[in-house]
């Protein structure tokens, strides 16, 4: 076979030594960087698998917000009347960011378990699968962004410079989702009911966060508590520039970003500490 | 000790893997919390899948690994493939390790063969460009032709196996792991696989071959090890080890426990 001679050896011949000292926190981070190609492929796989067998294909990611919008218009505008400017856009924007968090973390939670098949055969850093889950939720959000902005303009929101701030809350939410994702992914390996527990918590969290209703309808005590709700801070930081053209103050942005980072550091610490035990649990 | 140890690509020193199996079924957080409230501790039964195993594999060697189901062969491969960190002992491996990938593991049924090749390559640590270089040869070797752009769920098991073999061997690993998968596929393809394995041996690729088909082990490997109850029973030339294993199976000294899953 002449193919044989054409083969090229990969440049790096790595040495693996199970006895070498590593700091899991750092090591897994460098491994995640080394497997960025796989990360990209896993995100693509997710998107392809989700939309492949549908007629509209990737358009679904864009059509979805439109359909959601119609439902919201019928249900919420007809049934509830909150005094919110551009209410449909208000809800839709909130839902999109919520979906980034909710879908991202739900998929991330299963990531380690679902890929046990491959992880039992080849060494792949486990965090890649978590990152891919968040990544695919992130890309889905990006798809929905264009229709959101279009709908905003159509329904009478005036485009303004504050829109340039919109990536910030998206990235903040992504960070929070990743931190939460690694945390619960690690727990789900050890506790089979984690998945059910999380779905219930997620459902409660949805209604406790002012997404489909304005924060002003909450009683005083609850409204004060919302200050500690990171996701609400990000959703608010997404909606205000979009609908009202206002940008949150820098101090608050920094503080909430640091809080999301803290969640991520806690999650990553737990995840990387338990990493070696994952393979011992089927 | 073995000579020319500088040439070692795999070295296991006193490697043990201990699994802890809870004596009662407690897999949920709820049950853990209930237990904590009751002040009871979870009790575990421990079992050693590998127990103080020493093994050196030299560069270019084809090592057959034989033993009963549940003897620890798969655990051994996992430890070498870096999938499982040993509970005790040291694992040292030099070079890229590539296993053959089966459906359900690295392959996704909804994706096309083409997409799966790139995904698989990425899982083995290869970039898009590196896989592009290899892609045509992979398709050629797998004999898939136009089916490479069909979804994998429409493939026969033989086609999937061929694709898996083609990917694993075209990525040119330093160490190739083959775990009981070559049974599928028609004879001509099996012959092709054997030819390729021979090429690998010539080129100095290290091969770890796990199989219950002792004849394929004999045909493929120079050395063999017989693993039993997590320990190295015998290591030697493939003929020696297979003969010892055969005579043991024909006249077992004691009635062993029922076979468990590997």
Could you give the topology of this structure?
The complex is a heterodimer of chains A (282) and B (262).
Chain A: H1 3-6, E1 15-17, H2 24-34, H3 36-51, H4 59-79, H5 87-114, H6 116-119, H7 127-154, H8 167-190, H9 194-208, H10 220-225, H11 230-244, H12 250-278
Helix pairs in contact in A: 3-7, 4-5, 4-7, 5-7, 5-8, 5-9, 5-11, 7-8, 8-11, 8-12, 11-12
Chain B: E1 8-22, H1 29-38, E2 44-58, E3 62-66, H2 73-80, E4 88-94, E5 97-99, H3 113-123, H4 128-142, H5 157-170, E6 175-179, H6 187-203, E7 206-210, H7 214-220, E8 223-228, E9 231-237, H8 238-250
Parallel strand pairs in B: 3-7, 3-8, 5-6, 6-7
Antiparallel strand pairs in B: 1-2, 1-4, 8-9
Helix pairs in contact in B: 3-4, 3-5, 4-5
Features:
heterodimer, A: 282 residues, disordered N terminus, B: 262 residues, alpha/beta, Rossmann fold, 6-stranded mixed sheet, 26% strand, globular, disordered C terminus
Q: What does this entry look like structurally?
A:
The complex is a heterodimer of chains A (282) and B (262). Chain A is globular. In chain A, 71% of the residues lie in helices and 1% in strands. Chain A has twelve helices and one strand. Chain A has one domain (23-278). Chain A has 282 residues and is mostly helical. In chain A, helix 3 packs across helix 7 (127-154), helix 4 crosses helix 7 (127-154) and helix 5 (87-114) packs antiparallel against helix 11. Chain B has one domain: P-loop containing nucleotide triphosphate hydrolases (Rossmann fold, 3-Layer(aba) Sandwich), CATH 3.40.50. Chain B is built from eight helices and nine strands. Mean pLDDT of chain B is 84; it is low at 256-262. At the A-B interface, helix 1, strand 1, helix 3 and helix 6 of A face helix 1, strand 4, strand 5, helix 3 and helix 4 of B.
């Amino acid at each position: 076979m002449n193919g044989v001679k054409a083969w090229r050896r990969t440049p790096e011949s790595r040495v693996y030594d199970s006895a070498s000292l590593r700091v899991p926190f750092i090591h897994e981070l460098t491994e995640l960087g080394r497997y960025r190609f796989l990360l990209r492929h896993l995100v693509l796989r997710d998107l392809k698998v989700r939309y492949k067998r549908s007629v509209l294909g990737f358009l679904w990611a864009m059509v979805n917000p439109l359909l959601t919008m119609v439902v919201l218009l019928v249900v919420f505008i007809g049934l509830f009347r909150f005094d919110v400017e551009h209410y449909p856009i208000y809800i839709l924007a909130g839902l999109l960011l919520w979906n980034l968090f909710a879908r991202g973390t739900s998929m991330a939670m299963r990531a380690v378990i679902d890929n046990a098949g491959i992880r039992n055969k080849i060494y792949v850093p486990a965090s890649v699968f978590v990152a891919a889950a968040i990544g695919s939720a992130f890309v889905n959000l990006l798809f929905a962004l264009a229709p959101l902005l279009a709908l905003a303009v159509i329904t009478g929101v005036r485009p303004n410079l504050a829109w340039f701030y919109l990536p910030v809350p998206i990235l903040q939410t992504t960070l929070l989702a990743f931190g939460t994702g690694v945390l619960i992914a690690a727990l789900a390996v050890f506790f089979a009911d984690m998945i059910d527990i999380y779905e219930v918590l997620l459902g409660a969290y949805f209604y406790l966060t002012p997404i489909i209703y304005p924060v002003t309808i909450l009683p005083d005590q609850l409204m004060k508590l919302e200050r500690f709700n990171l996701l609400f801070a990000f959703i608010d930081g997404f909606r205000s520039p979009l609908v009202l053209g206002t940008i949150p103050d820098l101090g608050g942005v920094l503080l909430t970003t640091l809080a999301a980072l803290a969640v991520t550091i806690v999650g990553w610490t737990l995840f990387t500490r338990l990493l070696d035990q994952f393979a011992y649990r089927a | 000790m073995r000579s020319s140890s500088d040439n070692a690509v795999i070295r296991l020193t006193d490697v043990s893997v201990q699994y802890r199996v809870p004596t009662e079924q407690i897999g949920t957080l709820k049950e853990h919390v209930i237990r904590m409230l009751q002040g009871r501790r979870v009790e575990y039964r421990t079992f050693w899948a590998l127990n103080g195993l020493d093994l050196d594999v030299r560069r270019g060697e084809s090592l057959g690994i034989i033993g009963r189901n549940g003897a620890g062969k798969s655990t051994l491969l996992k430890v070498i493939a870096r999938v499982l960190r040993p509970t005790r002992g040291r694992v040292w491996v030099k070079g890229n390790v590539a296993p053959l990938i089966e459906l359900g593991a690295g392959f996704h049924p909804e994706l096309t063969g083409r997409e799966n090749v790139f995904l698989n390559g990425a899982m083995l640590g290869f970039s898009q460009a590196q896989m592009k270089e290899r892609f045509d040869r992979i398709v050629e070797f797998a004999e898939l032709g136009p089916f490479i752009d069909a979804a994998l769920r429409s493939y026969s098991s033989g086609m999937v196996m061929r694709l898996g073999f083609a990917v694993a061997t075209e990525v040119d690993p330093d160490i190739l792991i083959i775990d009981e998968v070559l049974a599928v596929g028609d004879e001509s393809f099996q012959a092709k696989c054997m030819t390729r394995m021979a090429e690998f041996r010539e080129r100095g690729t290290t091969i770890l071959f796990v199989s219950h088909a002792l004849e394929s082990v004999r045909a493929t490997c120079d050395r063999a090890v017989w693993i039993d109850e997590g320990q190295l029973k015998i290591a030697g030339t493939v003929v020696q080890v297979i003969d010892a294993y055969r005579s043991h199976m024909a006249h077992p000294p004691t009635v062993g426990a029922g076979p468990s899953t590997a």
